[in-house]
UniProtKB/TrEMBL annotation:
The keyword Hydrolase is assigned to this record: yes
Signal peptide extent: 1-28
Protein name per Swiss-Prot or TrEMBL: Apyrase-like
UniProt keyword Nucleotide-binding present: yes
GO molecular function (one): ATP binding
Source taxonomy: Eukaryota, Viridiplantae, Streptophyta, Embryophyta, Tracheophyta
Gene Ontology BP, a term: nucleoside diphosphate catabolic process
Length: 463
């Protein structure tokens, strides 16, 4: 009897080894078993231990470059490590918009990133791993059908040369509200505030190049009083995270990002000298195909006059049809406890770093809006030729506009979003998460959204 058991055990081991070595495609329907939620899983996948992990691949196609993020989740969409980090990140320059005259070359520029992403996803999981590309400011500015031709070339790349799960509508230009929503999810996910009452969640303000997005949870009462803007978009999105319902105020303020804001300030000076430009600089500024005169007046840079122009550019005094507006007559969401904890990212971080508000190696920090104005007093009094020696972290392209950027960002926060000058806020580039650092950016929120929309996943987005 003992001999028979030993022979039987040996036979079973040999069968398992053969099945393990077979390619996934050779396993028939009958050789699948059911997962713990009743979903059929390839037998080999269970043997390899991949039945409880999911991956998502997100491309961020920005104006200056393309980046890929790969995230790994468990069944409940908790992040799992990939090697020593909680994401794979790789990037390349220039951005897709640089290939307006050659769309196939735009797609080709993504191939090294795609290969790197696929390398970390187990072969058995690639057909179930969504790949999503979101393009932002760069493609939005292209003329004619250039952007769509680039997107179509990328779709062909993912369709024909990738083994990942792909849909045509997963390659698109993100609208500002999507960016705002995804960033809100990212920050609150990393800080473990999703599922908590709305007063404990984080308000996010993301200052991109072309637009600025604000997102925060508002009360049921404020949501009921939300107006419908003229673009037929709603100000409020209803979301459920971890069985908690949220009314999320999300608005993208187009043409008020850091680079677009400069153009708006130049418009107020009507192609004349501008008091926001550093003394000693005489040049031009180009944005959206329009060239603006960028030179300081004979009397030099003047911070107070610059602030007057910044308020005009933001249209602070525009008529407000609602109980309260931010700027340019836009509803502010009603305010409330969801705005208590403010996290600011993108250009808010980089300008703070350039001006010495943050240390050069800091990934974030607690500051006050007033710090931008205090820094502006020093910067605006500095001549163009002396900026690099006094503020060595300033990027060369930003030097003439550092005074303008600081004044604009202070004005945007205090006069536009009604943040008290002395309120403590957090400015971030990365967020500490389980002894690791993840980017304070929209791709993680997008990955969670894509993963949670699949019927095979237990979702934290229960809509």
């Amino acid at each position: 009897m003992t001999t028979q058991l030993a022979v039987g055990h040996g036979l079973l081991v040999r069968v398992l080894v053969v099945l393990f070595l077979l390619p996934v495609g050779s396993l028939s329907y009958s050789s699948q078993i059911h997962g713990i939620h009743g979903h059929k899983l390839p037998f080999r996948r269970v043997l390899l231990g991949h039945d409880t992990e999911k991956y998502a691949v997100i491309f961020d196609a920005g104006s200056t470059g393309s980046r890929v993020h790969v995230f790994r989740f468990d069944e409940s969409l908790n992040l799992l490590p990939i090697g020593d980090e909680f994401e794979l990140f790789a990037s390349t320059k220039p951005g897709l918009s640089s290939y307006a005259a050659d769309p196939p070359a735009a797609a080709t520029s993504l191939k090294p990133l795609l290969e790197e992403a696929e390398d970390v996803v187990p072969t058995e999981l690639r057909p179930d791993t969504p790949v999503r590309l979101g393009a932002t400011a760069g493609l939005r500015l292209l003329q004619g059908d250039a952007a769509e031709r680039i997107l179509e070339a990328v779709r062909n790349l993912l369709k024909n040369e990738s083994t990942l799960k792909y849909r045509d509508d997963w390659v698109s230009i993100l609208d500002g509200n999507q960016e705002g929503t995804y960033l809100w999810v990212t920050i609150n996910y990393l800080l473990d505030t999703l599922g908590k009452k709305y007063s404990e969640t984080i308000c996010t303000i993301d200052l991109g190049g072309g637009s600025v997005q604000m997102a925060y949870a508002i009360s049921d009462e404020n949501a009921e009083n939300a107006p419908m803007p003229s673009t037929n978009e709603t100000y409020v999105e209803e979301k459920t995270f971890n069985k908690t319902n949220y009314n999320l105020y999300v608005h993208s303020y187009l043409n008020y990002g850091s680079k677009a804001g400069r153009a708006e300030i130049f418009k107020t000076s009507r192609n004349s000298t501008n008091p926001c430009i550093l003394e000693g600089y005489d040049g031009t500024y180009t944005y959206g195909g329009v060239v603006y005169k960028a030179s300081a007046p004979p009397t030099g840079t003047n911070m107070k006059r610059c602030r007057v122009l910044a308020r005009k550019a933001l249209k602070i005094n525009a008529p407000c049809k609602y109980k309260k507006c931010t700027f340019n007559g836009i509803w502010n969401g009603g305010g409330g406890d969801g705005q208590k904890n403010v996290y600011m990212s993108s250009s808010f971080y980089w300008t703070a770093r350039e001006a010495g508000i943050l240390e050069s190696d800091a990934v974030g920090g607690i500051i006050r809006p007033l710090d931008y104005m205090e820094a502006a007093k020093l910067v605006c009094a500095t001549k163009f030729e002396d900026i690099k020696s006094n503020f060595p972290n300033t990027e060369d392209d930003d030097i003439p506009y550092l005074c303008m950027d600081l004044v604009y960002q202070y004005t945007l926060l205090v006069d536009g979003f009604d943040v008290h000058p002395r309120k403590k806020v957090t400015v971030v580039n990365k967020v500490n998460y389980k002894n690791s650092e993840l980017e304070a950016a929209w791709p993680l929120g997008c990955a969670i959204d894509v993963m949670s929309s699949s019927a095979t996943n237990r979702s934290i987005f229960d809509e």
